[in-house]
Amino acid sequence: MPQLNPAPWFPIMLMSWLILSLIIQPKLLHFTTTNHPSNKPQMTSQTTPWAWPWT
Q1: Which of these, 4, 6, 5, lies nearest to 14 by C-alpha position?
Q2: Where are the alpha helices (DSSP H) in the chain?
Q3: Span between the terminal Cα atoms of the chain, in Å
């Protein structure tokens, strides 16, 4: 069965990962995010415990 022979597919897989990690990934990392993180403190809301009828 030709699917079990890794000889033709292993170099293709290696080349595709090299292209992805060396060429495409740095180009994608240059994009800036639209929502920059802020230094605002987290607001915690006051929650009341649920009054269960059987307690």
Answers
A1: 6
A2: 9-19, 25-29
A3: 67
Burial of 27 (0-12, 13-18, 19+ CB in 10 A): exposed
Q: How does pLDDT run across 1-55, given as a tens digit for each residue?
A: 556 777 788 889 999 999 988 988 888 888 866 677 778 777 888 888 888 887 6
Residue found under tokens 């090299």: 18
Counting runs of H as helices and runs of E as strands, what totals does the chain give?
2, 0
